[in-house]
Design a protein that fits this description.
alpha+beta; 9-stranded mixed sheet; 6-stranded mixed barrel; 25 strands
């Protein structure tokens, strides 16, 4: 193709985009949506991901090294090993607590000099940093909980009253509840295991110049002494600034996957738009061929229109993404619990996002361009719809693609592949390829399903009959729409299935620490606080958990063959058995039998009572097993009577825990009441069985809502594009006297059919890669759980939303445009 002919093709494509301005706007929106998603995602990721320097500052301030003693290393020994003029400052961290309003609250206690080498690790918000042992700076939530202000005293459990002189925060964890003490208390707060040292080396000195006793970046396992045969372990481990700020390759992998999915999604949802363009430009292309245009010229005009619309969509997507991220900038700190810099706009990744949009437009226009170049000139001039390929052909292609997707997924996630290759990048690529091929394979099956609709249309009323027939006839245009919709929801189904399967395995293996109707109060004041709480809560059983010691003052435990209990042995009576839910074993307890708590009621045989050294046998006892359904990790594993304990020569010690059992499973009111009754005693802590937590539920809800909104948006735009091609049919209906309600119902039925087929195909498309992943890695222990809420959304709510949205928002052509010239 010559330069002049190329300019003509570009001019024709641009003119076609300008004439069909509303269709062009819809195409631009379709291309802009995935570009917006990717550009916004990479911009947010670049903004909230700490830079290497930020990571290093958070860990070591402005120091050159952070050094941790590995054995008997001391600060004086470290100073002796470092070059002259090196600066060393201690940094300490420990768990602590403070008291407020009669209750005790946990906190992290730090000690460092924020004006020295630790500068930048924490930020002083108001007031100043502590300068003496009687001063502290606290995080804002500590002030809120304690109800004090700067200048007031606050009581630390281990140190007593101290004065608050300022507020501080951890820029990398805004929710951290913390107390900052004076740097001179580092050794007392951290102790030998919780104190590290910040080191500033003199100019001209680097880490390789340090002696072997300081292991730099943990790169050496041992050091050979001067004699060549003496092996010594390093006394200190040192991390350099460059090592502490090493970036992760996670960001690159996330962007790669985002870019691949955005490219596929954009190409799928834009291909239908260009199919509509070919249909509307059919006569124009026929005239171009009639005057001597070659097939490649016809294809170039279509591709030129794709470039024009792709560039416009990419620009719109990038601009809107930047605007959205800038608008959300003030909320990012609270969303990620970290102080973030101003929004980081990466020109490279924005250009890549825009290039993906343009590339997706070209890919989407490639098939319509090839179709346009192969339409006979007479057929194009007549305006007749070109014959479509048999749907069975695409069905066979789709089934082959599905099979290939399954095999690629198995290879990418299988144990054999990981063992042979060991290349994570290739595994990520194969996972992405398998997921994309699965979506494309099921999408290729959609024309065959659409073709089946025409067979059932004759048995329906007027509006759905016309909608089904029109959808079936335009299956080559509707196939990409269905594929785009199922791609959106297949990802949701896949992630939800993986989360549900992981949750099912966790629930199967979960072992509760106590029954759901029990409360345990622990601490020196547990006996009095627990007795008060039991009376107020109308407990059906309560008792202290009284441990025992052997004659040599060592601990006592129970050893039973094939028993999974914790071995802790306590002494008790009927009250304790009722609190444990083992009151049926009271006659056995009185008869000198050891009542053993187990998950299942099985005969365990004799029990051996051993002293704490594990060697001395104090006696043997018969056992009675009581099935509780709980693996008692927090409570004793067995109970004996006081008489049996005396016969074995055991002595009791004061109880540190108190057990309460209610007549019903705990409610939220019971938990709040128990906390209120026990927290006035500063030395007690109350706990109960919380059950298996489900942290992924909120994420699944956000994922479903986002996918549904995206799918409905794509459905609306695709339906609008379909209406643009169906305008001749609407004019025919209008001329025959069809009222606007009929035409609106036809549009709604068409949208519902496309969404229903997409939802039906999205379920297997999403489950296929997850099944391959689980079957390869965890078979047969890892069950595949079908996510019922997501399946219902895909198969029911999505079509219903499409029908309602199309019925409310569609605008049938007006009566005055009945005989309006096409394209005017």
């Amino acid at each position: 193709m010559t330069r002049s002919s190329f300019r003509v093709a570009v001019r024709l494509g641009t003119g076609a985009a300008r004439r069909g301005r509303w269709r062009s706007v819809l195409v631009v929106i379709l291309i802009a949506l995935p570009v917006l998603a990717m550009a916004g995602a990479v911009t947010l990721l670049a903004t909230v991901t700490p830079t290497p320097e930020q990571t290093a500052i958070a860990r070591m301030g402005v120091a050159d090294l952070v050094v941790t003693p590995t054995g008997d290393g001391s600060v004086s020994g470290l100073v002796a090993l470092l070059p002259a003029r090196s600066r060393v400052e201690p940094v300490a961290q420990a768990s602590g607590s403070f008291t407020a309003a009669g209750a005790r609250y946990g906190t992290e206690v730090f000690s460092m000099n924020l004006d020295g080498l630790a500068k930048g690790i924490f930020t002083v918000l108001s007031g100043r940093a502590p300068q003496t042992a009687g001063e502290v700076a606290v995080s804002p939530d500590v002030l809120a909980i304690s109800g004090v202000s700067i200048g007031d005293p606050i009581t630390l459990t281990d140190r007593g009253p101290v004065t608050v002189v300022g507020t501080v925060e951890n820029p990398m964890n805004l929710r951290m509840r913390m107390v900052l003490a004076d740097a001179g208390l580092a050794s007392a707060i951290g102790g030998p295991s919780g104190t590290t040292y910040l080191v500033a080396l003199p100019p001209g000195t680097s880490a390789p110049d340090l002696p072997p006793s300081i292991e730099v970046d943990f790169g050496q396992a041992q050091v050979v002494g001067p004699g060549g045969d003496q092996v010594t372990q390093p006394s200190y481990q040192a991390t350099t600034r460059a090592f502490a700020g090493q970036p992760s390759d996670t960001q690159v992998g996330v962007i790669f996957i985002l870019g691949g999915l955005a490219l596929v999604e954009a190409a799928l949802i834009a291909s239908a738009a260009f199919a509509v363009s070919i249909r509307r430009r059919q006569r124009e292309l026929g005239l171009l061929g009639a005057v001597g245009g070659e097939p490649r010229h016809l294809a170039t005009t279509v591709l030129a229109e794709a470039v024009v619309l792709g560039v416009a969509g990419a620009i719109v997507g990038v601009v809107v993404a930047i605007a959205a991220v800038l608008a959300s900038g003030p909320l990012l700190d609270q969303l990620v619990d970290r102080r973030n810099p101003p929004v980081v706009i990466s020109p490279v990744w924005l250009l890549i996002s825009a290039a993906i949009g343009v590339g997706a437009a070209l890919i989407a226009a490639a098939v319509p361009a090839r179709t346009a170049s192969r339409v006979p000139i007479l057929a194009a001039l007549s305006g007749r719809r070109p014959p479509t390929a048999p749907a069975t052909r695409t069905l066979r292609l789709g089934l082959l693609t599905i099979g290939a997707a399954f095999l690629i997924t198995l290879v990418g996630t299988g144990v054999q592949f990981r063992a042979v290759s060991g290349t994570p990048g290739l595994g990520i690529g194969l996972l992405l390829l398998g997921a994309v091929l699965g979506v494309l394979g099921f999408g290729a099956c959609s024309p065959w399903l659409l073709e089946r609709l025409e067979r059932v249309a004759s048995r329906l009323s007027l509006s759905p009959r016309l909608a089904l027939r029109d959808t079936a006839r335009a299956r080559s245009r509707n196939g990409p729409i269905v594929t785009a919709l199922l791609a959106s929801f297949a990802a949701t189904v896949a992630v939800a299935a993986l989360l549900s399967s992981q949750q099912a395995l966790a629930e199967r293996d979960y072992q509760p620490s106590m029954r759901t109707d029990q409360i345990i109060v622990a601490g020196p004041g547990a006996a009095s606080a627990g007795a008060t709480a039991a009376q107020e809560l109308a407990a059906i059983g309560s008792a202290p958990l009284t441990p025992m010691t052997a004659p040599d003052d060592s601990g006592v435990f129970l050893e039973i063959r094939d028993w999974r209990g914790n071995g802790q042995l306590v002494v008790g009576d009927e009250s304790l058995l009722r609190a444990l839910g083992a009151e049926s074993a009271l006659p056995d307890l009185r008869a000198g039998v050891a009542v053993v708590l187990a998950e299942q009621d099985t005969a365990l045989g004799k029990a051996i009572v051993r002293s704490g050294d594990g060697v001395t046998i104090l006696g043997t006892l018969p056992t009675r097993t009581v099935a509780t359904g709980a693996f008692y990790s927090s409570l004793p594993g067995a109970v004996i009577s006081p008489e049996t304990a005396g016969r074995l020569g055991l002595q009791t010690v004061p109880a540190y825990s108190y057990l309460i059992r209610l007549p019903h499973p705990l409610t939220e009111q019971d938990r709040q009441r128990a906390s209120a009754l026990t927290t006035p005693s500063l030395d007690t802590v109350v706990s109960w069985e919380t059950g298996l937590q489900r942290p992924g539920d909120a994420f699944r809800l956000i994922l479903v809502i986002g996918s549904l909104l995206f799918a409905l948006t794509v459905t609306g735009v695709a339906v609008a594009l379909g209406e643009a091609e169906a305008r001749p049919d609407q004019r025919t209906l209008l001329a025959l006297g069809a009222d606007p309600g009929v035409r609106r119902r036809i549009t709604a039925a068409r949208a519902g059919v496309l969404a229903a087929i997409a939802g039906l195909l999205a379920v297997p498309a999403g489950l296929l890669p997850v099944w391959g992943l689980l079957a390869t890695r965890h078979s047969p222990d890892y069950p595949l759980v079908i996510p019922i809420p997501e399946v219902l959304v895909a198969m029911a709510i999505l079509p219903l939303g499409a029908v309602v949205g199309a019925a409310l928002l569609s605008r049938p052509i007006s009566t005055w445009s009945t005989y309006r010239r096409e394209g005017a």
